[in-house]
């Protein structure tokens, strides 16, 4: 498939922030655009943890991509998993079910993002789902709420304790927000709903191999965030390296070299990311390089060395130490779109890409957040209001904003959660991999070996 | 597990309309109540088709049962699939994961509802999901929206036509509403979103072995409903018996005895119901009888013959030809709860159970419905408004009403749908059973045999 009109054809891979903002920049310009994505929705990833904890519906944070760009008449959206990029013949191969599609491009914008990384221990993923997709979030929703359900009927105190222990691995923004929300739902939302267990006794543990939480926010906010989490009842375990994960628990290694086991049915993996393998595929064909996280070293105009027709944006990029955040993808997508239009119009190049840091923020609990915007750090209620406003504005689509706002009122004012449904698939089919386990649980540390530890060293 | 307090212990099986209204009736009375259900939510089934077609989130129609009854302090909710009712020792056995729970009762209310029936052809279910659970609705959501996605990239005209043909089997309220909504979303919601296909060309077919749609609404409304569907572009095929279903199509037998094949990737089964097998289990132990749909013949006070301590309500009941609708379950659940309280208080029995018909209604399209309330039949916009009001009022929980109302405004005023997300599981894992099929498709009628036809004869 190529441009029908004979116009310059831009192919975009990915419907995340990078791909979507590139498409919007190119919308109704004198080019033809094909956006290829393996999901039919644009995912607003910063709020994924709220789907996992029953605050928002998946529709609230994942509007359909073709709905968003329907007025950009020159943009075509197709569903497909990209299996190959042929740099020589300028073609992208993609698949959906048994359909194979070949799309030729004049310019290419690769914005395929990053997935969860288990640092070489992919067998962890079965027991500790990541936080990267709607599937992940719904799976975790089933496991979190399901654990309370199963604890209510459990008659074995060890089993019950294991069901009411929740471990989040990784103390970046996603992990911090997730741990805070699990504590919040246990203590507030579920407070009066059970008769045998007290959900408030749930034990929420945040584990990281690094010495502090939210390291990118700076020392002051880091300390504040940790205190705020602890006040909420979250146990923060730092300098604690995860060396194994199985059905019934995780094993961590403390700084003194000793191993211990935390028994827990529900594990959340928010520790590391790995860029899409399309980066390595491009590197191989063009002689460029990827870093250990799979991110491609690009020119300062976001193009692949020697290939000015290929832009790479967002989480797939290794450039000047820019962080893997939504704003990098948004700004990169816009930049790439503009660059292509300027070239076609014969205008001079816009100069090197420069990431503008718009700050970072994370909510810890209801009415409390930490925010770092430029040199200004703030915390507490004011930061929480700022967080609210920024996220509402950043969402795509008026209707999603209204629906999200409504669900926030239900949760923050009413202590309720409207979106707690799990399918059988989520509660049983997948969780069934985990039976509830014996009372006498063998210590995981018996199985520790140094190879596992090595691979975890990159976790923080 | 039995009542801790020594109080009279009522066990309720099921969290549908019957079980929930029984629990509310018994709430804060001088009894102990245990509600056992295989889902953690109460499902508002009349709007399930709106989850399948992207209007509502699953949370909107499935509030958590223990959330609803949290102020009824004497009601305990446990998750479990009932595997056995032991009438002799008055015990209910249930399971969740590998936990086995035995609950003893003084009184028992069985409100386990009905599942989809394929009339002996359970292999149809793989290709034509039913409309009974949240899992069903999300699976169908994935298949419906996924078919348009796959059609957009298909280059084979036969395959594309098959992807854009949607067949709904069963012309009762669920089937009629489902067919209407698929037509509506194809023609309005998706109108400007595709570039290769015209979603408005989607072919929606409603098939039933009976000679009319909505037979329980009476002749006049039946004709009106059919005309209204046809005006919307739904093809109504009556007197057409489904004799086989496979990946790529369904086979129907017309009144003249000839067979034909409708090629279609997306099939919805809304044709028949079968009562929970717990009915047959009770019948076997008590010497009572079930009808062909598995419904138990009960006394006129809804008790099992010879067992005044066991009430059966809702879809599991065969009594005086009462229809299997939500109101029968609601009224039955309340009646059973009241009967138990009156007995304990030593008051005289309340007399035979009498079902009060509160009417029936079905929406055909935006701004158009049919309603039959007592002797009054009405159609069109007024019926649609009545439908809106009745359904909003019948929903459980204020927050679900607000959220549903918002989603209705988005859909009915804006022609948008906020809840179109499918997980990979739904789009791929299950649909992957269906590859997209060959162009030259073997006629299903070659495989027809009389046994299949016989079993379908009960469909209407």
Anisotropy-based shape of chain A: globular
The number of E-state strands of chain A comes to: 23
Instruction: Quickly count the helices of chain A.
Output: 14
Enter the CATH topology name of the largest domain in chain A. Answer: FAD/NAD(P)-binding domain
Q: Cα distance, first to last residue of chain A?
A: 43 Å
Structural class of chain A: alpha/beta
Quick description:
The structure is a homodimer. By secondary structure, the first copy, chain A, is α/β, with parallel strands linked by helices.
Detailed description of the structure:
Two copies of one chain form a homodimer. Chain A starts with 8 loop residues before the first strand and ends with a helix. The first copy, chain A, folds into three domains: 9-38 and 80-116 and 274-344, 3-Layer(bba) Sandwich (FAD/NAD(P)-binding domain), CATH 3.50.50.60; 122-271, FAD/NAD(P)-binding domain (3-Layer(bba) Sandwich), CATH 3.50.50.100; 424-459, no CATH class. Chain A is 33% helix and 23% strand. The longest helix of chain A is centred in the first third of the chain and has 20 residues, at 134-153. In chain A, the strands form seven sheets. A six-stranded mixed sheet of chain A has the order 3-2-1-7-19-18, sandwiched between helices. A four-stranded parallel sheet of chain A has the order 11-10-9-15. Chain A has 460 residues and is α/β, with parallel strands linked by helices. The model of chain A is unreliable at 428-433 and 447-460 (pLDDT under 50). Chains A and B meet through helix 3, strand 3, helix 5, helix 12 and helix 13 of A and helix 3, strand 3, helix 5, helix 12 and helix 13 of B. Chains A, B: Residues 448-460 have a biased composition (Acidic residues). Chains A, B: Residues 9-333 form the FAD/NAD(P)-binding domain. Chains A, B: Pfam families: NDH2_C, Pyr_redox_2. Chains A, B: It is an enzyme of class 1 (oxidoreductase).
């Amino acid at each position: 498939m190529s441009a029908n009109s004979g116009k310059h054809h831009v192919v975009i891979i990915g419907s995340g922030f990078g791909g979507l903002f590139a498409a919007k920049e190119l919308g109704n310009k004198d080019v033809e655009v094909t956006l290829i994505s393996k999901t039919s929705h644009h995912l607003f990833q910063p709020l994924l943890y709220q789907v996992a904890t029953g605050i928002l519906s998946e529709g609230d944070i994942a509007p359909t991509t073709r709905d968003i760009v329907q007025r950009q008449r020159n943009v075509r959206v197709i569903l497909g998993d990209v299996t190959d990029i042929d740099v020589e013949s300028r073609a992208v191969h993609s698949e959906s079910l048994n359909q194979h599609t070949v799309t030729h491009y004049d310019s290419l914008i690769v914005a395929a993002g990053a997935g969860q990384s288990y640092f070489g221990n992919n067998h962890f993923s079965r027991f500790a789902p990541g936080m990267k997709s709607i599937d992940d979030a719904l799976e975790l929703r089933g496991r979190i709420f399901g654990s309370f359900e199963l604890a209510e009927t459990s008659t074995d105190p060890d089993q019950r304790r294991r069901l009411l222990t929740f471990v989040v691995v990784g103390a970046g923004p996603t992990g911090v927000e997730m741990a805070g929300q699990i504590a919040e739902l246990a203590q507030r939302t579920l407070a009066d709903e059970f008769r045998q267990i007290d959900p408030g006794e749930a034990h929420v543990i945040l584990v990281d191999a690094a010495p502090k939480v939210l390291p990118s926010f700076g020392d002051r906010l880091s300390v504040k965030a940790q205190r705020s989490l602890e006040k909420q009842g979250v146990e923060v375990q730092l300098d604690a390296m995860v060396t194994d994960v199985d059905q019934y628990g995780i094993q961590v290694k403390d700084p003194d070299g000793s191993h211990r086991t935390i028994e827990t049915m529900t594990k959340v993996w928010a520790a590391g990311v790995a860029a899409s393998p399309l980066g390595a595929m491009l590197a191989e064909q063009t002689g460029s390089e990827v870093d250990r996280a799979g991110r491609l070293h690009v020119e300062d105009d976001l193009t692949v060395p020697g290939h000015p027709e290929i832009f790479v944006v967002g989480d797939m990029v290794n450039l000047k130490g820019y962080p893997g955040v939504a704003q990098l993808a948004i700004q990169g997508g816009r930049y790439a779109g503009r660059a292509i239009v300027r070239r076609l119009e014969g205008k001079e190049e816009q100069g090197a890409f420069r990431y503008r840091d718009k700050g970072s923020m994370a909510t810890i609990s209801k009415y409390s957040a930490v925010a770092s915007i430029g040199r200004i750090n703030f915390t507490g209620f004011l930061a929480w209001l700022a967080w609210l406003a920024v996220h509402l504005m950043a969402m795509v689509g008026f209707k999603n904003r209204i629906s999200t706002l409504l669900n926030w009122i239900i949760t923050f004012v009413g202590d309720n959660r409207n979106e707690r449904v799990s399918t059988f698939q989520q509660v049983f089919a997948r969780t069934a991999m985990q039976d509830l386990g014996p009372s006498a649980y063998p210590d995981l540390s018996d199985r520790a070996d140094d190879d596992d530890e090595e691979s975890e060293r990159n976790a923080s």
